[in-house]
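Self-study notes.
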Amino acid sequence: MTVRVADYVASYLHALGVRTCYGLSGTGSIHLDHAFSQQPDLLSVCARHETAAALMATGAAKLTGTLGVALVTSGPGAVNALAGLVDAYADGVPVLVISGQVETRHIDEDARSFGVQGFAVVKSARSMTKYAAVVEQPSDIRSHLDRAVREALSGRPGPVWLDIPLDVQAAEIDPATLRGEPSVEGEPRGAGARQAARQIMAMLRGAERPLVVAGQGIRQGAAEEQFQTLIERLRLPVVASRLGNDLLPYDSPLWFGQGGIRGRLYPNLIMAQADLVLSLGSSLSIGFVGEDADGFDPDATVVAVDIDPSQLKKKGVRIDFPVCMDVRDLLDALLLESAESTEPAASERWLATCAELKEAHPTIAGGELREPLNSYRFVERLDAHTGPGHVFVVDTGSAYYVTGQTLEFSASQREITSAAFLNMGAAVPMAVGAAFSRPDCQVLVLVGDGAIELNIQELATISQYALDIKVFVLNNGGYASIRESQEALCDGPALDEPEALNFRDVAKAFGLPYRRLERADSLDADLAGLLAHPGPELVEVMCDPNQLLLRPLRADGGVRAHDGASLVRPVKERNHA
C-alpha cells in the first residue's frame, strides 16, 4: 500500500510520540499541512508568524525535553522560522523544523531565489542546526527523518531542519520499502566515567571550599535524582546557571541561587571564595563567569563536565580539568565512588559561610510595598501565591533580571526562558508551547511592555485556544534595562523609545480578559483571585519607571552592571529592592 510522503512524515512523528505541531500553513507546504491536519491525535496549532511557531516548538521542548516540531511554508515563511530556531540552537533544545519548498525542477541553489517563493533556506539553517537537508528523493524520507531525530536528541540536544519540495511531499511511496538511517556505533555509554569520578572525588575530599555549579545538562541528562542524592550525601553547596535555576527548591540549605552578572546579589561572593568548582552541565558562559572571566578565584581548580566538547574549550574561560561526557554517567560514577564513605566533602564552616551570605543579601530587604509598584516586590508577591502546578515563562530585559534575582522555586515548579540568546519577545510564543505540552499546569508569563510587542500577535493564539496562560506585562515605561545600559556605558541624550501601548485596548482586540494591577494594598488579594481562575488573561502591572536593577556584588567589594560593564557609574540607591 502506498501513501503520500506528507502522510508518512505525519505518521512517523506521531509514532515517536509527537502530539502537537506548531506552524503557519502556506502553498509551499500545502501537502504537509493537509497531512498533519488529518493525522489522528496530532494537533496542528496555527501560529500567527513563523518565528513564533519555531519558538512555540522550542518552548514545548524546553519544558519536556522531548522533540518539538514546527511546520512552515517555503521562502519567507522558512526564513522567518530561522529567527525563532536560533534560540533552540543557542540553548541546546531538540526542535525539528519542516519547511515546504518549490518543486525540485525549479530549485537552483546558485540563484538568489527560484520558482515561486523559493529560497535555499537549508544553506542558512546549517549554521544553526545539528543537521539540515533537502529531501530530494521521496525514497529517502525515512533516512532523513531518522537522521534528523537522532541528531536532535543525542549528545547535546539541538535543532534540525528538513526542507521538502512540493513534488516530494505529494509523491506516493511504499513505507515497507523505505531505507532507514543506520545506527552509529560509538564508545560505550559512560566510558571513562569511573576513572574521572575517582579523580574528582579525590579533589572534592581535598578541597576546603568546594562548590558545584548546576546547569541544564543535569536535566537534559535526566540526572536530577542523582544530582540531588550526591549533593545531599556530600553536603555540597550549589550555585545555579539560569537554565539550572529551578533544579532544587530555593529553601534548600545547599542551594544558593543563580550566579553570574544577572544573578542574585551574593552568589558571586561564594564563587570567588571557592577553591574547587565542579561545573555540571553548565556552559560557564561569559554571563556567568563575567566578561573578564574573573568570577572564580584565580587559584581555584575548575572542573567542568559537559557532553559538548566545544563548551570545554571556549575562548577566555579557564577550565583546569575538562570532562567530556554525559553528566548522568559522571554522576552515576560519583555516587558509586562516594558510597563507601558518606562523610561530607564540604565543611560545616564553609556551608555556614555560604548560608550567612545568603541571609545577609536578600533581594527583598524590609520596607513596605508602595506605589508605583517595585517590580522585584511584585514578583516576590506573585511567587508567594504560586504552587507546584505553575510554570514561569520569562522574557528578556528587566523581567529577566528581576525574576532571576527574586523567584524562589519550590519543588516541581519550572521556568523556561531564552538564556544564552536573550531573545526579546520570545516568552509569549514559548508559553503557548509550554501550555500545550503541559495542559495540567498554569503558565505565568513575565514580559516587559516593550518586549511583548515583538510577538504580540500570539496573544490571538492564546485567546483562540483558551489556554491557561496569565500574561503579566511589567509596564515600566519602555526599555528599562536598555536605559540603564546607556547610562552606564554612554553619554548624551536618551535613546528614543516606543510609546507604551494601551493594554486594555490590546486585550480587547485579542479577545482576552484584562486586569490592571497598581494598588499595593490590594495586590495580594488581586493575585490570589486571578490565579484561582483558569484561562487566559492579560495583566498589566504598573511598575516604577525609575526603579534600578539590582547589581550582583563583586568579590572586590564593588558591583557589576547588569550588562556586565566593568566600569559603571555609582549606584544611585541601596542595592536591594
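Second protein, same conventions, sequence then structure:
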Amino acid sequence: MFRSLEYHLGDRIDFSFVGIDVDRRALGFILAKMPGVELYEADAIRLSELLDETLITADIAVVFQCCYALAGQDTDQILKGLSRVAPTVVVADHIDNCFGVESSVMTLRDAADRVYEATCHPFAHLLAEAGYTNVCVLPATPWKGLTGFIVASRNPLPPCTQLEEHIAEAAQPEFAEAANKRHAIRKAAPAAAPVNSVSPSIDEALDEIAARRCRTVSVYGDRPFVEAFRTAVNATMADVDTVWFSGSFADVEHGARVLDRTVLSSECVVVGGPLARLYHPRLLRLMARTGTVRPVFPVAIRFSRGSRRTTGTRSTNDGCSCSRGKPWR
C-alpha cells in the first residue's frame, strides 16, 4: 500500500506518516524502516486519551491486521478514535462479516486451504457509527489476519473497480521491483537555462522576472510563501499572472495544483518556502522527463550543507530549516 502511494504520487505529494501501535517492537521496526515517521504508543482505550492530549491529523488512516484479534468493543473504539483523525480510513482485516450486525468467530480458510478461526467484525456498521458514510469492500487473497480491505470515507470514493485495479497492480512482484528501481534510473537532464539563479529574496526574484519580461509565473511552494510572493507581485507587477503548485494536501485543498507538466507552461518558475530543498529537485526531474526547460528562481536557498539561509523560516545552526510540517494530512 505504501509502496503504491510512493510509486504513483511520491514525486508530487509530500507524505508523512503517523504510527500508533501497542507493540513497542513494531514501533521500533517502523522507525528503522521509516526514520521520518511520527510514532505513538496506544491501545484501544489509550487511543482516545492520546487524541485528547495530542493534535494528530491525517488524510488517510490505515488499520492493518489488528482487529481480528480484538473484541468488538475495542474495534469500535479504534474506528471512532480514528474518525477524529482522518476523513478516510482503510481497514485491512477479515471482511467476511463486514455487513453483519455483531462481531462473531468464524471458521475460515487461508490461501493454502488451511482451516483457522478468527473474530470477524461488522465493519460496515461500525464505520457508519464512526461517521464514515461511504464504504467500498475489496476482497484480497486470504491469509491469516487478512481477507480483504474496507475503504471508508466521509467524502465520495472512486469506483471500487478502480481501487481493485490499483491494489492488484501493487501486489505484483514486477511492481515492487519497478518501485525499488524507479529512482535508480535517471534520464539525462537537458542543459540548464543560463538565466537560472538563486535569489536571496522575493524582491530580487521579481527583479529577475521583470528583467526578462515574464508575464506568467509558476510558484512552487507552501501557502505562506505563495501569499507573500503574490502580495509582492501585486504591489509591483500587477500584469503578471501566477499559478500555484504545491506538494501538500493541505495546500491542494486551498487551491494549489499538484506538480505536473503544466508547471512548465509558464515562462518561469519560482520555488520557495521551507520545502524548497525538496521541491527544486522534483522540478528538475520533471524537466528531464519532459525535455522542457524554464528559468527557475529558487528563493533564498543554498544547496551546500552549512550555508546560511536568509528566509524568514527559523533555521538550525547547520542551515537546515526546522519549521515542522503538519502530521500526515
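Instructor comment on the second fold: Confidence is low (pLDDT under 50) at residues 183-197, 302-329.
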